[in-house]
Structures are given as structure tokens and as C-alpha cells.
């Protein structure tokens, strides 16, 4: 297990290093100079030069990369060009919206998909299975931002159960925050739940054909007991992979959904920073998202080894 | 032919026909503004109603199909054009440095949240259909590379490959003449799936204003226009949404249907 963990850890660091180089240089080749953008078209060349020095834009690219990357490691993300506040603070504030949204959506997606997938697998080929599979076909085809608009139309405008957008703020309490994130979380979760339910179903069907499942039935377990005790654990490997991948979809998908609900999360920060040419903020947010995805995938790899001891032995 | 394939083909054909017909006929000019007729619900004259500028929504949906299909089609083309050779190369040199390099680079692209990078690319290089295509296409490359490599590796162990080697063919020729035809079925199925994902991605990018720019109609931008008007003119949001859903569902069903149809073992089992 230690060897496996170390090997995964090494590949985690390499991925992070390469990703940071890519993010930095992709944003560096963006046309437009932040200093001249901030000062407007009538700015004097020497004013622009002074601001470039102040922002640290006049040193070679590779030196800026080192400064940026080592800053990120210590939690210093630099200072926003437009707001003149520490990027780390801005990002942290927005994280309190985006992260709960992603986790909420992931929880909903799992809660819907597990029973749906298990139900469909246990009723293979029957009406219940066909209905669940039909629903998932629809689920994967629906764009989540469109679904969000429909939820707003029904539950906010017509029924008035929720507000059509905006964020309650953590000072209003946990309940109020969760309530204001409910429609966004549902719209993010449903398409993902459809995918997860399909994976769950096919993973369970694969497991059901295994010899040990027949043995368990022959021992006298009911089919429900077999499914719970032996089927589920063995079907979890592909399901965990998809859950890991979905977390990145949910964090990134949140960017679009935040636009629909006017939520002050990372997504809105990215769009504002892009239009203001505030590259350092864009860089930091993108790197942070990549970091989350890579770390989650690492955690999924470790979770595999915990669920399936065979993987530990193999490495 | 199975039921999925028939339904999928029909829905996909509808979208393609709408796009093709729009080149020489639409009920109205999709771009002409007609404010007095604005926000009409579907009726005999305007089959899908009109938007807030009085534009005919049926015509806009037809022309929008062009944008969606073109962006997704070229993005799949980029993915296949680069992903297939890389996957074949990795499989032919299995376990070598180049295989390792290709697969690790693939892992890295997978680690990037695709939508964020697509937003980044379009934001940096300018919003527009071409940059949307590139942004979506890049993420198709590792998908195809992985599918091809995975399917090609067991084929390399087969005896007819050994025979081809004995006949003096090199790895590149074997890959093209023997491996590729054997993985084609899988690729066709994957292409339909990536096509449907491309349509969804294009809609999302257009929705946030980073896809096709006005006056080019696109389903995603029609939804963005509808957002503030959804309470007074729900049809503005419903109709482009249904267009996206039906097209994506059509492609997914076609993919499922093709997978079954192209798999001779399943076909024999059914008859």
C-alpha cells in the first residue's frame, strides 16, 4: 500500500508541475498588456512602464513563473491587477460558494444515482429498468443551464418556493445557504446522476454474472442481500472512477450554472477577471480548479486500493 | 436495424436536414428584425413563435442547427485526426517511452476541467465559432487516442498481425491496413458520442457569450437571450432547449444503436 501511495504521489506532483507551467504560459501568450488595459488608451508610455514595474511585469517570464508558482505553494497568489486586493482572499471568498455547490451537487447526484442504478439492475429488461434507462437517456441530453432555467421558471417564478438567483450569505445560517444553493445543485446534479446511474447499472450487471454471486445465492441469501453485501462492493470501482471525474465536471460546470443563478462563486470571478484582463486572478482560479481535480483523482486512486485489495498487490 | 438506431437516425437526420435546407430556404429571414411582431407564441405564421426582436424562431432554429453541427463536426474531426494516429502509435510501441509520453499527456488533458479550459481559450483568443471548435476539439484528442490504443493492443497479439509482419510490413503499414479497420466500429460509436458532447459544449459556450457571435444564430445564444424573458415568453427558452435535447438524444441513441448493430456477435444472438 505504501509503495502504491508513493507512486501515485509522485505522479500527482509531476501532473501539478506540468499543469502549472501550461496554465502560466497559455495565459502569458494572451494578447493585450494588463498595464495598458488598466490605464486606458490615453496613458503616457512612462506611466505604463512604471505600472508594469509595479506589477512585476518587466522581469523575464520564467522568473515570473517561479515567483507565481512558489507563491501559490505558500498560499500567496499575488495581488489582483484591478481590485488591488490579494487574490488568495478573493478566491477564498468565492470558494465558500463554489465548493459547497459542487459538494451539494455531488451528494445529490450520488443519492439519486445509486438507488436508480441498483433498481434498474435488479429489474433488468423489465418495465422498471426500461423506464430508468429512458430517463437517463433524457438526463444526459439536457444541457444543465437550460434545465436550470426551467427550474427557475417552475419553482422560483411560478411556485415562488425559491428565489430566482443570488446567494444567501453564510451570515444567514447554514439552512439559508443550502436553500439558496438547492436549485443550482439540482440542475448540476441531474445530468451527472443520469451518467452515474448508467455506470452503476452496468457495473452491477457485470458483477451479477460472477460465480461468487451464484454461490452467495446458493448459500441461501436473498437476491437483495446478495446485491447489498457482495454486488455493491464489487461494482464500486467503475462507479468511484466516475464520481471522481464528476467532481471536476461539477466544479467546472458550476461556472456556467453560477451565471444562471447570479451566484458570486469562482465562475463569476473568472468571467469578470477575463473581461478586465486581470490575468493573475484567471491564472490562480484555473490552477486552483486543476489542483482540485488532480487531488481528487489521486484520492480516487487511493480509494480504489482500499476497496479492491487486488490493485494494491499488483503494483 | 434496432429501435435505438432507427429513432436516433431519424432525430439526427432531422437536425441535419434542417441545417442543410436552411442554406437555401427558411420561412423568414432569420436575421430580420420585426419589433411589432415580437414575443409571439407559436402560431400558424410563426411556427415556433418570435423572439424579443420579432425574429422568426423557426428560421433561427434551422440556421442555428448549422452552427451546432458544424462546430461539433469539426471538433470531432480534430479529435479523430490527431487522436487516432497517436493512439495507433502508442499501441504499436506499447510500453515504450513514446507510449508512456502519449498516455501521460492524455492524463494531463483529462485532469484539466474541459469547460474551464474552453472558456479560457475562447476568452484569450477571442470569442467565436472557430476558437470554440479548437477548444472543444483539443479535449476530443485524448478520448480517441485512448479508445484506439485500448482496442488496438489486443489486436497486435493476433496471428494475422504476425503474418503481416512476416510479410515484411512495418508497424505504420500494419497499423493502417490491419489495426485501423478492426477498431473502426468502436471509433464510429465514440464519434457519435463526442459529437453529441460537442453540441452540448457549443451550446454552453454560446450561452456564456464565448461561442458563435451575432448575427450568426446559435441555440446556446438563443437560450442566453431567453434568460431574462423566460417568465413572460417561456417558448423562447423551451424551443431551443428542445432542439438541443432532441439532437443530443438522437446522436446518443444512434451511438447505442450502432454499437449493437456493428457488433456481429450481438446480431447473431438476436436473430
Secondary structure blueprint with pairings:
The complex is a heterodimer of chains A (315) and B (271).
Chain A: H1 2-28, H2 34-39, H3 45-55, H4 61-73, H5 87-122, H6 127-141, H7 144-158, H8 174-208, H9 211-218, H10 223-261, H11 266-275, H12 279-307, H13 309-314
Chain B: H1 3-21, H2 57-92, H3 97-111, H4 114-125, H5 129-156, H6 159-166, H7 171-207, H8 219-227, H9 235-262, H10 264-270
Helix pairs in contact in B: 1-2, 1-9, 2-3, 2-5, 2-7, 3-5, 4-5, 5-7, 6-7, 7-8, 7-9, 8-9
Descriptive overview:
- Chain A is mainly α and 315 residues long.
- In chain A, 79% of the residues lie in helices and 0% in strands.
- Chain A has 13 helices and no strands.
- In chain A, helix 5 (87-122) packs across helix 8 (174-208), helix 7 (144-158) packs across helix 10 and helix 8 (174-208) crosses helix 10.
- The mean pLDDT of chain A is 82.
- With 271 residues, chain B is mainly α.
- Chain B contains 10 helices and no strands.
- At the A-B interface, helix 1, helix 6, helix 7, helix 10 and helix 11 of A face helix 3, helix 4, helix 7, helix 8 and helix 9 of B.
Amino acid at each position: 500500500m505504501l509503495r502504491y501511495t508513493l507512486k501515485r504521489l509522485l505522479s500527482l506532483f509531476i501532473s501539478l508541475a506540468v499543469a502549472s507551467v501550461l496554465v502560466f504560459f497559455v495565459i502569458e501568450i494572451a494578447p493585450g498588456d494588463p498595464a495598458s488595459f488598466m490605464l486606458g488608451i490615453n496613458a503616457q508610455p512612462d506611466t505604463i512602464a512604471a505600472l508594469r514595474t509595479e506589477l512585476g511585469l518587466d522581469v523575464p517570464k520564467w522568473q515570473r513563473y517561479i515567483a507565481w508558482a512558489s507563491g501559490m505553494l505558500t498560499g500567496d497568489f499575488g495581488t489582483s491587477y484591478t481590485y488591488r486586493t490579494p487574490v488568495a482572499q478573493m478566491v477564498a471568498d468565492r470558494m465558500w460558494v463554489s465548493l459547497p455547490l459542487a459538494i451539494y451537487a455531488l451528494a445529490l447526484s450520488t443519492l439519486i444515482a445509486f438507488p436508480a442504478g441498483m433498481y434498474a439492475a435488479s429489474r433488468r429488461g423489465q418495465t422498471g429498468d426500461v423506464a430508468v434507462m429512458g430517463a437517463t437517456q433524457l438526463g444526459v441530453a439536457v444541457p444543465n443551464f437550460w434545465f436550470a432555467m426551467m427550474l427557475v421558471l417552475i419553482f422560483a417564478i411560478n411556485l415562488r418556493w425559491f428565489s430566482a438567483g443570488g446567494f444567501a450569505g453564510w451570515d444567514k445560517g447554514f439552512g439559508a445557504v443550502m436553500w439558496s444553493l438547492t436549485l443550482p445543485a439540482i440542475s448540476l446534479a441531474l445530468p451527472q446522476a443520469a451518467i452515474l446511474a448508467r455506470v452503476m447499472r452496468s457495473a452491477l450487471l457485470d458483477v451479477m454474472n460472477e460465480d461468487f454471486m451464484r454461490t452467495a445465492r446458493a448459500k441461501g441469501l436473498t437476491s437483495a442481500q446478495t446485491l447489498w453485501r457482495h454486488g455493491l462492493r464489487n461494482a464500486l470501482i467503475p462507479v468511484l472512477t466516475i464520481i471522481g471525474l464528476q467532481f471536476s465536471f461539477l466544479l467546472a460546470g458550476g461556472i456556467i450554472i453560477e451565471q444562471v443563478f447570479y451566484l458570486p462563486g469562482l465562475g463569476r470571478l473568472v468571467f469578470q477577471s477575463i473581461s478586465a484582463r486581470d490575468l493573475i486572478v484567471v491564472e490562480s482560479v484555473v490552477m486552483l480548479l486543476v489542483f482540485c481535480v488532480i487531488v481528487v483523482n489521486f484520492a480516487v486512486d487511493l480509494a480504489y486500493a482500499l476497496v479492491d485489495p487486488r490493485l494494491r498487490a499488483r503494483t | 436495424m434496432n429501435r435505438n438506431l432507427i429513432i436516433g437516425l431519424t432525430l439526427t437526420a432531422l437536425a441535419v436536414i434542417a441545417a442543410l435546407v436552411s442554406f437555401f430556404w427558411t420561412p423568414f429571414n432569420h436575421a430580420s428584425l420585426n419589433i411589432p411582431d415580437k414575443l409571439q407564441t407559436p402560431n400558424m405564421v410563426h411556427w415556433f413563435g418570435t423572439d424579443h426582436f420579432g425574429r422568426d424562431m423557426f428560421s433561427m432554429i434551422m440556421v442555428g442547427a448549422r452552427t451546432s453541427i458544424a462546430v461539433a463536426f469539426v471538433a470531432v474531426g480534430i479529435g479523430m485526426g490527431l487522436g487516432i494516429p497517436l493512439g495507433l502509435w502508442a499501441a504499436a510501441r506499447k510500453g515504450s517511452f513514446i507510449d508512456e509520453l502519449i498516455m501521460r499527456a492524455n492524463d494531463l488533458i483529462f485532469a484539466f476541467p474541459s469547460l474551464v479550459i474552453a472558456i479560457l481559450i475562447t476568452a484569450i483568443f477571442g470569442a467565436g465559432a472557430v476558437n470554440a471548435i479548437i477548444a472543444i476539439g483539443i479535449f476530443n484528442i485524448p478520448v480517441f487516442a485512448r479508445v484506439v490504443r485500448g482496442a488496438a493492443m489486443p489486436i497486435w497479439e493476433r496471428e494475422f498481425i504476425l503474418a503481416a509482419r512476416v510479410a515484411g510490413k512495418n508497424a505504420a503499414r500494419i497499423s493502417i491496413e490491419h489495426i485501423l479497420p478492426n477498431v473502426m466500429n468502436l471509433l464510429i460509436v465514440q464519434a457519435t458520442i463526442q459529437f453529441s458532447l460537442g453540441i452540448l459544449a457549443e451550446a454552453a459556450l454560446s450561452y456564456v457569450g464565448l461561442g458563435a457571435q451575432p448575427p450568426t444564430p446559435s441555440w446556446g445564444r438563443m437560450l442566453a437571450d431567453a434568460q431574462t424573458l423566460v417568465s413572460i415568453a417561456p417558448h423562447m427558452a423551451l424551443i431551443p432547449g428542445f432542439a438541443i435535447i432532441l439532437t443530443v438524444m438522437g446522436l446518443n441513441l444512434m451511438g447505442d444503436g450502432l454499437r449493437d448493430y456493428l457488433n456481429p456477435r450481438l446480431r447473431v444472438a438476436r436473430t
